[in-house]
Design brief:
The protein has 89 residues and is mainly alpha-helical. Helix content is 53%, strand content 0%. The chain starts with 15 loop residues before the first helix and ends in a 13-residue tail after the last helix.
């Protein structure tokens, strides 16, 4: 207590502990970041070694409505589209 009955003011460098703790946290986070970046590189290299090269894809053919209907008919075993006027003889 000072002569006026007040508590002494904090030392001038009271932020030392705070800054020191922040520095330690930053250093720890930077270490974590470096470790994670290394792990990402490791996983990417493993993935590139284990995956086959992508097959080259040609243009996919256009599938029209008639083709879709014929495929459905073949799946059902009817062979013809029974609702079509030409097939209703």
């Amino acid at each position: 207590m000072n002569r006026f009955g007040e508590k002494h003011a904090a030392p001038v460098d009271s932020g030392y502990r705070f800054r020191h703790r922040l520095r330690r946290q930053v250093a720890s986070l930077e270490d974590d970041k470096a470790a994670l970046e290394g792990r990402v590189r490791e996983l990417e290299s493993e993935a590139s070694q284990s995956l086959p090269a992508p097959a080259e894809q040609g243009a996919t053919p256009y599938v029209g409505l008639k083709s879709l209907m014929m495929a459905q008919e073949e799946a059902n075993g009817t062979g013809t589209f029974e609702g079509h006027p030409r097939n209703s003889k």
